[in-house]
Structures
1.
Amino acid sequence: MAARAILGARSLSAFTGAGISVESGIPPFRGKEGLWSRYDPRVLDIEYFNANPEDCWPVIREIFYDFFGKAQPNRAHLLLAELEHGGFLKHLITQNIDDLHYRAGSRNVIEFHGNSRRLLCRACGRRYEVAEVDLRQLPPRCGCGSILKPDFVFFGEGIPRDAFARSEECAATTDVMLLIGTTGEVYPAAQIPQTAAARGALIIEINPERSAYTDRTTGLFLPLGAVEALSRIDDLLREER
Ligand code: ZN
């Protein structure tokens, strides 16, 4: 049924969260085994960062560049990239900042919370690819002398305007949305699938366990991990095509 809905979709979209990257070895932030059980989340609080960038940057480097940088996209990321290149997937919205969709080959990615791939100078607006910045010297600085910040959303910051507008456009036009590895607890991101569902879009939820979406928003619930669910859907798509 999921495969038929995907094949019949006029405007297929996907909305992903931390659960899709768990099988790449990236733990979620929340929960008992989450990153915030090991690290102080204050390093990503914008006011704390602004006041103490020298203290925050070593932790940020360890989590987002040493650790995330070694993670590889998994089959779920790769299959979503294939769906995009095959012309099936119109929008891919991710709440993740781990850059794994991009590294899997997806190019039309709406990065709702920004990404760790780039660093931003808030003084002059210049952005740098992380590969062109020497992170052995902390904190990293822009050519203008100001301290760089990862180009993702810190606690206390707003959602990037462009990503928000494109996500709302997706919610207003999609007729089938794959909800993958996201439990609907982080706002305003959680509103996007809710808006699509309220308009009548079919929400296909892929999560190992039930979530805040399952009863109210989801039309079809697949109680599976992301890799297994997308692999099965891919097999069915190949049969039906
Ligand atoms: Zn600058």
Note: The chain has two domains: 1-24+73-113+159-241, 27-70+116-152.
2.
Amino acid sequence: MKNVNYWRLALGNRTLSSNTCISEGREGARSSMAHATAGQSLPVPNVQALAQTWNSSGEQVPDRYVRTEETGADEVLAGGAIPVVDLGRLMDPQSSEEELANLGSACQNWGFFQLINHGVPEEVIEDVKRDLSEFFKLPLEAKKAFAQVPGGGLEGYGQSFVFSDTQKLDWADMIYLMVSPRESRDRRFWPTQPPSFGRSVDRYAAETARVAACLLRCMAADLGVPPDRLTEAFRGQPQSMRTTYYPPCRQAADVLGLSPHTDATGLALLLHVTDVQGLQIRRDDGRWLAVDPMNGAFVVSVGDILEILSNGRYKSIAHRAVVHPDKERISAVMFHQPCPDTTVGPLPELVGKDGGGARYKSVAYMDFMKSFFVAKLDGRRSHMDAMRI
Ligand code: OGA
Ligand code: NI
């Protein structure tokens, strides 16, 4: 197979990259397998272009985007807020103990937090925001020069993997890139417009890798394992980035920008490129809580891999994105993955401590990702069910 390297996953004859987002729905599971093994994501319309013409038409939003059962505003919790963690306080010996407890509680009870005082220079953030926004402003044909290719996995410009003709579609376009290590990059998908794109993403990736490493060390301290126990699993700090463009939608309450999912990754750092709310997380009672982004903060999500490594102490929480009736929204998520040769399983120190034994199987990371895709294509609800003991 062409173009498969250590950093990409092979499933059947298609190459799949991690951190994809495939909707949780069961419909179309059977036909999905046929397409998956044929190595094709089904072609669907570009949503930015669709929105441009449709929003000013008098027509109903196309049926494939209508999600009546899932988007009702009445099930969204008002007034709650996810925890805020201060990286400056975590690094300061005077306050680190207190802030560590705050971090631990956020990871255990919420699986999400906003990270402030992260020390990433404003200029680095402003540059990457500008270049990501500029990219989506390019004419459609110019963006398509970096489009996903048939059988080439999910990297590039396009939509999340579409596996059936009846599957509901998300109201969004995205560009997904393998970022680190450098040899994982596929230059075909890296925008050359705006010209500073690559440099801005490089600097941003280096800064977010540093922040992720700090957080992993702090989490190790909170879990009571040696400081490098988690960073070892993330050796080489593989990163990939998904930037999602959510066009406005006149019928915003009827569609979803991103279907409910958990992040099949270690740690995800989300940057709001535009100042528009849209991310919602699922609380234990099944209701959705809207995340109100703080200026300059990252929204951090605990991914499935951290849930497993922590033997279930930390939670990987389902989340989704809704869209705005008249504002575009752009988010950029930097995913931090384990090293491809890692075995993903509960840390032995924690299994001993918890008394109840291991709550998850230990599997090669590559096998974890394969089971992630197989679960989705089978229409099973969660790949994590297959991991639980
Ligand atoms: C993701 C994600 C949420 C958002 O890309 O995994 O959850 O608000 N994005 O765009
Ligand atoms: Ni996500």
Note: The two ends are 35 Å apart (CA to CA).
